[in-house]
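Exam revision sheet. Question 4 asks you to relate a sequence to its structure. Input first:
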Amino acid sequence: MRKYPEILKECKLFMNIEEKNISALLDCLGAEIRSYKKNQNIFSEGDTLSHIGIILSGKVQIIRIDFYGNRSILTTFGQTEIFGEAFACAEIKSVPVSAFAENDCEIIFIDSNRILKPCCNACGFHSRLIFNLMKSVAVKNLILNQKIEIISKRSTREKLLSYLMIQAKQHNSNSFEIPYSRQELADFLEVDRSGLSAEISKLKNQNVIECKRNFFKLI
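Answer key, structure tokens:
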């Protein structure tokens, strides 16, 4: 566990907490490390979550599968990012989404109750941890609203352009890479892959965008 504070100091959950205190904090929180192989489930829809995950390596996708088996990617998390905090802290009995390892992953899990309840050791940095957790949940809500804004568009073209313009703004550039393959982008936008590919071709022919694999440029 002691080899990870250097990675975890970059995690927003431990923002403004000194690296020397992170190891003690992990012991206080009863942190546990687990490894996952590519495509392995981390949790499934219907599970009860009590722990928050922090990614040490690899990537995790959060997905939703509807009644007919259609798959939608809600978001993807990478190294030092946290996931599952909203469900764990809200004590939801049955989570509405699933999480799986996009590639081989190593994840630290900490009990949300140990964060939210007063620390018996009266750690001076525990209150900062709670503040960071609340901030993370608030940021995730903003990201979710952004996703709703994108998929509320009526056509595949509008959804795609809305997503690309948001990416351009975040990268502060009209050229950028997205974290999704074509199928994953279709799942994220909640559209048919063939329809998405056709729309991308139209936009390229109309000189609206340039793209190659996951690289896009708004013209």
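Marking note for examiners. The chain has eight helices and eleven strands.
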